[in-house]
Amino acid sequence: xxxxxxxxxxxGSSDTDEKSIEDECLMTYKLIIGNIKDNIKSxxxxxxxxxxxxxxxxxxxLKSYWKDSTNSLTFQDFCKIMKEExxxxxxxxxxxxxxxxxxxDGFITFKELKKVLTARGEKMSESExxxxxxxxxxxxxxxxxxxxxxxxxxxxxEQCKKKGTDKLNxxxxxxxxxxxRNESSRRGSSKGDTKQEKRSSSTESKSxxxxxxxxxxxxxxxxxxxxxxxxxxxxxxRVTEPRTLKSWHHxxxxxxxxxxxxxxxxxxxxxxxxxxxxxIWMTIKPCILRPDQxxxxxxxxxxxxxxxGTLGDYVGYTHLKNQQKFCLNKSFxxxxxxxxxxxxxxxxxxxxxxxxxxxxxxEQSGEEYLLTKAFKDALTDVFELIDxxxxxxxxxxxxxxxxxxxxxxxxxxxxxxxxxxNFELKKGEITKKGFMELNQMEANDEEGDTxxxxxxxxxxxxxxxxxxxxxxxxxxxxxxxxxxxxxxxLQLQSGGRALEKAVCASVKATEDIQINKLSKDLNAxxxxxxxxxxxxxxxxxxxxxxxxxxxxxxxxxxxxxxxMERTVQIPPMSMKVGLxxxxxxxxxxxxxKCHETVN
Length: 599
Prior knowledge:
By secondary structure, the protein is of the alpha+beta class. The chain folds into four domains: 8-162, EF-hand (Recoverin, domain 1), CATH 1.10.238.10; 220-235 and 510-598, Sandwich (Immunoglobulin-like); 245-350 and 472-494, Jelly Rolls (Sandwich); 362-469, EF-hand (Recoverin, domain 1, Orthogonal Bundle), CATH 1.10.238. Helices cover 36% and strands 26% of the residues. It contains 15 helices and 24 strands. The strands form five sheets. Strands 3, 4, 5, 6, 7, 8, 9, 10, 15 and 16 form a ten-stranded antiparallel β-sheet that branches. Strands 1, 2, 20, 22 and 24 form a five-stranded antiparallel β-sheet that branches. α1 crosses α4 (75-84) and α7 crosses α8 (146-187). It is globular and about 75 Å long. The two termini are 52 Å apart. Residues 1-16, 118-123 and 206-216 have low confidence and may be disordered.
C-alpha cells in the first residue's frame, strides 16, 4: 500500500505561457541551486525543484528525465523539463482528492488536510491550514467538498510560490547588507588590516611552498602484504552454543538490509536493554524467501547507548561463524545497547542487470482490477519482510515501519482507523489476507494505474521483473542467561560513521591482525576472520594521509569495490576502512595480495 499524498503545492497554476514558465524556472533554480551556471547534481534535487515549482512528475517521466547514465542537468535541461510537465487535469485532481480523503466519505476534513500540508515541501502551520479551509469553505461546515477543494488548490499554489519568492528575496538581500557593514567597518581599521594582510600573505606563501613540496614528493610503496587462506567450507567453527541455552531467556526479531539509490546500505537497528549483568549468546543469519535468493556476510556490531540516546563505546560484534550464522558469546553489563547490522558490501551491491520485460501487476476483469499471481507472490514476500516478530500478522508498529519505508509517513490514528474498518484483522493486527485486500483496494482506487504499487515494490527492493535483489532479510536472536532482555526494533537507517568507527575498533582490538608499517605512525591493519579480510588504515600522525590499496593480483577474491583498488584519505589521528575482501568461491582456497602506496 502506498500512502504517498500530494500536497496542494504540487499542482501548478493555469498560467503556463512561455514567459511565465521561464520566470518560474529562474526563481526555482536560484532558490534551490543558487546559480544558473551550476548543475542539478541528483535525482532527489530535481524532484525537490519540480515539486517546489508546482509539478508532480510520474515515476515514468522521472526515469526519462534522469536516466541511469545521467550525472547532472543544466538550467536549460530544467527549463525543458518544466515545459514538458503539464498542469494537472481533472482526473489528476480527482485522484488527489481521493488520496487525501482517506475515509472515502466525499469530504476532506481539517485533520486530513493538515496531515498533508504540514508534512512536506513548503510546510504550513496549523493556523495557515485553518485559514485556507475557511477561505474556500462556502457552506461553513468545516470541511471541503470536491469543488471547494479545487478552489483551494489553485489558491494554495500561489501562496507556496509567494513563500518561495520571499525566501529568495531575503537570501539575495543578505550579501548586500553584509557588504555594506563590512565596508563601514574597513574604513576605521584599514591600517591594521594592511599589516594583517602582509602577515597572511607571508603565511600563505609558506603554506604554498609546503603544499608544492608535498605534491612533488614521490609516492612511497611498501612491501606487499600476502595472506594465504584455506577454503571457507574447510574452516572448522570456533564456537558452539552454550549447553544450557534452552533455559536462557530468548528475544528475537527479523530485519532487512536495503540498498538506497546512492548505494548506501540501510537496515533495521535494535535497542537491547538489560536489567542486570548477564551472559549473552547473540546470532544473526540470513532469511531465505526464495530459492534463487543469495545470502551474504552479515554481522551485528554492538555499541553502548547512553541515557540521552547517543552512542558510546564499541562493545563487540558477532565475529564467529557457524554455518550461515554469525555468533557472539559474551558477558554484558547492565544497561542499554545499540545493535547495528553490518555487511561488507562485497556481495550485496546495487543492481546492474537490465530487466527486459516489466512484470504485470493487475489485470482487468469487467470493471474490477485483480492482482496477478506474480504480484501476489511478491506481496507475500513483502509481508514476510515486514512481519518482524514472525507471528504471521502485522502490528501497527510493523505496518508503520513499512509505511515509513515506502511513503515516508508513519501510520497515525486516522490511518490505522481506516485499516481497522476496511481490512481483515486478527487480535488487532493485519492478516495476510487483509494485506492483500489493502493492495487490491489500491489497485481499484487507481483504476488499474500501478504507478504507486511499483513505487512500493521498488522501495522494498524488487526489480521490474519482481525479483528481490536490492533487499535482504535476516533474523537476530538474543539469549540472556540471568535476566530477560528487552529487544526493540528501530526504523531503517544507515550505520554511518558510528558503524565504521566500530568496525575499525574491532579490527584494532583483535589478535587476528597483521600489521604492515607504512611510515612511523601510519599502519595498514589486516584483519582475517572466519570468512572475511578487512584492511584498516591507522593514521596516528598529525596530518591527513592518502593511501592507495591495490589488491588486483589477489586470487579467488571479491571486494566491496569493483576494481579491487581504492585510494583512501584518512584524517589525522584516526582510522578508516580501506577494503573488505571475501572469497569468490567458498569451496576454493583464496589469496590476498595487496600493495599499499602512500601518496
